[in-house]
Amino acid sequence: MLTRRAALMGAASFAALPAMTRAASAEEIMDTSMVEPVDLSNLKRIKRKLVRPPEVHAHEQVAPGAPRIVEFEMQIVEKEVEVDNGAYLQAMTFNGSIPGPLMVVHEGDYVELTLFNSPENMMQHNIDFHAATGALGGGSLTLVNPGEKATLRFKATRPGTFVYHCAPGGPMIPWHVVSGMAGAIMVLPRDGLKDHEGKPVKYDRVFYIGENDFYVPKDENGSYKRFADVGESYPDTLEVMNGLIPSHVVFNGKVGALTGDNALQAAQGEKVLFVHSQANRDTRPHLIGGHGDLVWERGKFNNLPERDLETWFIAGGSAGAALYKFLQPGVYAYVNHNLIEAVNLGATAHVVVEGDWNNDLMEQVQAPVEYNATHEGRTALP
């Protein structure tokens, strides 16, 4: 139903935002105020403090009891982000991070999110949960102007990993997504994860990796442009976006976000769950030197996991999960196995694993030495 507030929001947006942007159409904003609210007063409430990816907030792998209302707060932050040396993105973010933080609940729980649009922001924003049912995934019930907040509650009815993203309407949707406004939620089965035989599986740690494709414009000299604010960046960014060739493909917001001093840390013998999301483009994660012991490629825990995968596929607009037990120490590269995007555009993470080397799994029988090419190596040829 079209509301007076919807009409006012549309009018205010046209007046306040640059001419090239379009507010979400008023028809997309629903009014459910006449519907009798559901009585959930008998359910326990808990609050979860979201943390910056790749870390994930504290949670139980097996639900401790009856369904609960899990409360989250998230603030929308528009800010400039340096995605690579000299390449600056006018970013739009959930909670100031790219990707937005991972939320974890259990099937049957209620997710209750209060979304704040900071007064200093320029744009309307909202949140579309792929895990939710109805109202554009919550997008039509959470459309907030700068300085406004809204609270959405939905029941987590399907276990799995799901994307959430901003979807304020029309051409604003892809722009907001490729400017950083996407994250993921993991809905665990109440009795925890199961392997291909239905046996319980637990992880020792979980890492959340959000992959982004960015479209940073260049000037006539080939240098990256820098803009005063998000509104000013729109026309040039749109032109690059429509060419469908990203300037950067990165994990967690920037080149090198998960390498070097920022590398992920694990220990030999640990089972690590990798949750990987891509809200816009297809991708293909690969752990160099390891495997996907159990892989929920489409991220849905009602489906049996694939086993022993070398590379797995994450469809654009979805999130997947892969479990691996690290058997050897060393530095593992976790990459998008379009190696051009991994090496040249930035989609690489490192996992540093401590432990003792096992020569039974891999042994250097002979270190590199020079050889006599006249007599050696010829038998290798067909």
List the helices and strands and how they pair.
Elements: H1 4-16, E1 45-47, E2 69-84, E3 87-94, E4 103-106, E5 110-117, E6 128-129, E7 149-155, E8 160-165, H2 172-178, E9 182-188, E10 193-194, E11 200-201, E12 205-214, H3 230-242, E13 248-251, E14 264-267, E15 271-278, E16 285-288, E17 292-296, E18 306-309, E19 318-325, E20 330-336, H4 339-344, E21 348-354
Parallel strand pairs: 1-2, 2-5, 4-9, 12-15, 14-21
Antiparallel strand pairs: 2-3, 5-7, 6-8, 8-9, 10-11, 12-13, 15-19, 16-20, 17-18, 17-19, 20-21
Task: Please give a structural write-up.
It is found in: Periplasm. Residues 1-26 form the signal peptide. Cu cation binds at residues 125, 130, 165-166, 176, 181, 337. The chain folds into 2 domains: 4-32 and 42-190, Cupredoxins -  blue copper proteins (Immunoglobulin-like, Sandwich); 209-354, Immunoglobulin-like (Sandwich). 10% of the residues lie in helices and 33% in strands. The protein is built from 4 helices and 21 strands. The chain has helices at residues 4-16, 172-178, 230-242, 339-344, and strands at 45-47, 69-84, 87-94, 103-106, 110-117, 128-129, 149-155, 160-165, 182-188, 193-194, 200-201, 205-214, 248-251, 264-267, 271-278, 285-288, 292-296, 306-309, 318-325, 330-336, 348-354. The strands form 5 sheets. Strands 13-12-15-19-17-18 form a 6-stranded mixed sheet. Strands 1, 2, 3, 5 and 7 form a 5-stranded mixed sheet that branches. The chain is globular. Residues 1-22 have low confidence and may be disordered.
